[in-house]
Amino acid sequence: MTAPAAARSDAAPSLSTWLAFAAMCVGMFMAILDVQVVAASLPTVQAALQIEPDQMSWVQTSYLIAEVVAIPLTGLLTRALTMRWLSVATLLVFTLASIGCAWSGSLASLLAWRVVQGLAGGLLIPQVFAAGFVLFPDRGQALATTIAGVLAVLAPTVGPFVGGWITDTYDWPWLFLINVAPGIAAIAIGARLLPREAPALGLLRTLDLPALGLMAAALASFEIGLKTAPKAGWLSLDAGALLVASVAAGSLFVARSLRAKHPVVELRTLADPGFALGALLSFILGIGLYGAVYLMPVFLAYVRVHDAMEIGSIMMVTGAAQLVMAPIAVVLERRVSARLLTGIGFGLLAVGLAASAFQTRATDFDEMLFPQVVRGVAIMLCLLPPIRLALGHLPPEAVPDASGLFNLMRNLGGAIGLALIDTVIYGRAPVIGERLGQALAAGDVEAAKTVGLPLDKFLAHTPGTELEPAVMAYVRGAVQRQATVEAINEAWAMVAALTLAGVLALLVVSSRRRQP
Are residues 434 and 324 in the same domain? Predict the structure, then answer.
């Protein structure tokens, strides 16, 4: 018996239907896990491929941008290729791209394969939630959606630890090679059991390729511009040209999308105040969600000098808190106002992010425990209620396109957030280091305490006299480490402030709705 037979009857879903759905869930799990697995091992990948520290975030950003481009294409490609062949094709591309990532010998080749991976990953995730409605009768939909939701939460929970264990036990290429065997199995099961329908390839002619190109160009120019500005200067020709190009491409994309009969992204949905609020919250959540996952390994690797396994073990706390909070959030979401839960969630997330803005050179697992637990609890309240705020009141025919835009905004926030974080860290660290160096040269005892220099030796040194090369190297390293700590703290504070903007947006919209 095949999946479609089960889907078209009123009987309980057959085993083949569940196996087909499981194959799609494997793809979604791999796509979500891929961001988290790599996160804890970024410093190891950076060292292996000799990547400049300020370029390291591209490993994640390239994946997120590609997902942003791919997500809105899911509905059209499903109708054109059918669920079966789109699932098989995206699983195949994702698996091959994983092999390509593992074989990469440079940053350029790794990023190229990460883009391909992200394009496939961006299609794998929304397919699963759509399949929950297509493959199952009414009584099976709730269970299917719950399974997909649990897997979506489980991936971030185990991802950092799995990534750290793989890197320490084997080597970083296995971060990607772990996708190969499950990918092949999912391809075989999906090709055999997913519904057999006739493709409608003619629908591909409605794809607005110029708009898609403009969206990709706007995002890429903006990200590269943000990366270039700290070193070249915000008023430099290179940074200015990239940012102007981003604005121009983005403006053309918006204008074309608003006029198009079949837009790549249905921007007109943003005219609905409820959806616009939900989309903004999704964007802000992306900044906090992906920003935290990036900042922790940077601090733990470069300040605390932990290996990938230790970093993954520490980062599991957030995921564990999410897993515990998930069923509670589901119950609360059904009984409590979505606006109230969203306000509490974003408020808690801002607190959890801000609590990490006071780290010192000695900060480690114990000091990171409370902020991680708060963030894990908050994230679940930031995920579910905003979906109801954004989509709950829309007509059924508008939900698919609106859902794609809603999810796109979260990844877009993550990609832009990582670029802003790098701008703060690698733009501010040299300035802070220079300030600390000048203070030490002037004999400032407080600066010596801050940096962690032995006070007896510091006080014994006569300001203005030369230091031995070994001593100078030690002092320079201490200054650089402290500058990195302070710059990372500023990045945490920035992300917390942007997250707090979600609470303010809720208050503003709520107050306007109460006005006569």
Answer: yes
Render pLDDT for 289-337 as a digit per residue (tens, 0 to 9): 889 988 998 899 889 989 888 988 898 898 889 888 888 888 887 788 8
Is 259 strand, coil or helix?
helix
DSSP H helices, 40-73, are 42-48, 58-70
Token duo for residue 349: 């997330």
| Residue 369: its H or E element | helix 365-391
Instruction: Count other C-beta atoms under 10 Å from residue 362's C-beta.
Output: 11
Nearest to 28 by CA among 144, 121, 103, 150: 121
Q: What is the CA radius of gyration of the chain?
A: 24
The dihedrals phi and psi of 443, each to the nearest 5 degrees, come to 85, 25
User: Looking at the structure, do residues 15 and 163 belong to the same domain, yes or no?
Assistant: yes
Task: Give Cα 202 distance to the centre of its chain.
Answer: 34
Q: Which of 419, 160, 165 is nearest to 300 (CA)?
A: 160
Sequence-distant (6+) residues with CB within 8 A of 39 are: 60, 159, 160, 163, 293, 294, 296, 297, 315
Same domain assignment for residues 217 and 357: no
Higher pLDDT residue, 128 or 95?
A: 95
Domain C-terminal end among 263, 282, 297 = 263
- Alpha-carbon distance of 186 to 24, in angstroms, equals 7
* CATH number for 70: 1.20.1250.20
The domain in which residue 187 lies consists of 1-206
440 with 511, same domain?
A: yes
Distance CA 421, CA 39 (A): 15
pLDDT at residue number 226: 78
pLDDT tens track for 13-39: 788 888 999 999 999 889 888 877 887
Say if residue 132 is in the same domain as residue 252: no
- Asked whether residue 326 falls in the same domain as residue 192, the answer is no
Q: Are 489 and 467 in contact (CB under 8 A)?
A: no
One-letter amino acid at 115 equals: V
**DSSP letter assigned to residue 462:** P
